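the two lines:
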Amino acid sequence: MSDTEPQTLNDLPPGFVFDPSRASKMTTRHGHGGWLGITYHAHGPDWAELALPWREELVGVAETGVLASGPIISLMDNATSMSVWTRTGRFVPHATLDLRVDYMRAAVPGRTVIGHGECYKLTRTIAFIRGFAHDGDPADPVAHVIGTFMATHGTYL
Amino acid sequence: MTGEALPPYALALGISVDHDEAENPVLSMDPSERVLGRPGFLHGGAMSGLMEMAAIAALRAELVRRGEEMQLKPVNVSVEFMRGGTEQRTFAMGTVTRAGRRVALVNAECWQDDRTKPIALAQMKILLSPAGSSQ
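prediction for all of em together
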C-alpha cells in the first residue's frame, strides 16, 4: 500500500464510489481480518465474496484439522458487511446488531472457504443481510447466515 | 476447566481459561491487533469466537460432571451485539440451559471491565453423540 492510499475506510475521499476489491485491501490487511488471512474474492451489485484460506492456526478440533467456527463467523460478518457497502455504493459506518449462523457441515481441512454475503434490504438505519459459506461447491454449503447491521453515523439511504 | 485443552484457534487468538465461576469456566481474551475490527474496537467475529469457546467449555464441564463422554457438533449460533468492545481484556462464560441426550442449548455472555454490562450474548445449539460413534 502506498502512502497516498487511504489507510482506513474512514479516510476515503468524499464521492468515492465503494469498490469492494479496493476496500478489501484495507479491511483485510489489518486487525482480525488480516490475522485470519481473509482476502477479496468477487462482488456484484448487492453481494460480495471474501475468501478464507485454511491454516493450522485456525483449527477448532486439533485431531481432525476442521476449521473452528469462529473464523467462519468472522468471514461472514466481513462478507455481509462488505455487501452492504457494495449495495449503497459508499462506505457507511455501521455495527453488526445480530448474526445467526447455521452450520450445515464441517469445512474440509485444507480447503479455502468462500463467504458469500448479500444485502437484500436497506432501510435508512438497518441493513438486512444473508449469506452462505462453501468450500468449493456453492450448492453444498458449510454454513448459512442471516443478520442485521445498523448505521452508526449517517444513514444508508 | 476440567482437562479439556483449548483448540489451536483459541490459543492463537490469546484465549485462555481465567478462572471458574460456579463450576463454569470463565475464558478471557487478551487485547491485540489480532482481535480488532475497525480501529480501536473488537471484531464481532472475535467476540463470537470467544463466546463459542466459552459455550463449548461450559458444556464439556457439565458432561464431565455427569461422567458422560460425548462428541460435540455445533448446529447453530445466534449472536447479539449490544455494545462495541474496546481494546482491553475480554471475558466470556457459557451457561448450559438444557443438555439432553441428543442436543444441548448453551447461552454465553461476553463482557469487559464491567460484568454487569455485557457487550454481547450468544445462544448455541450443539448436537451430542456418544464418543466413538458416527452420525
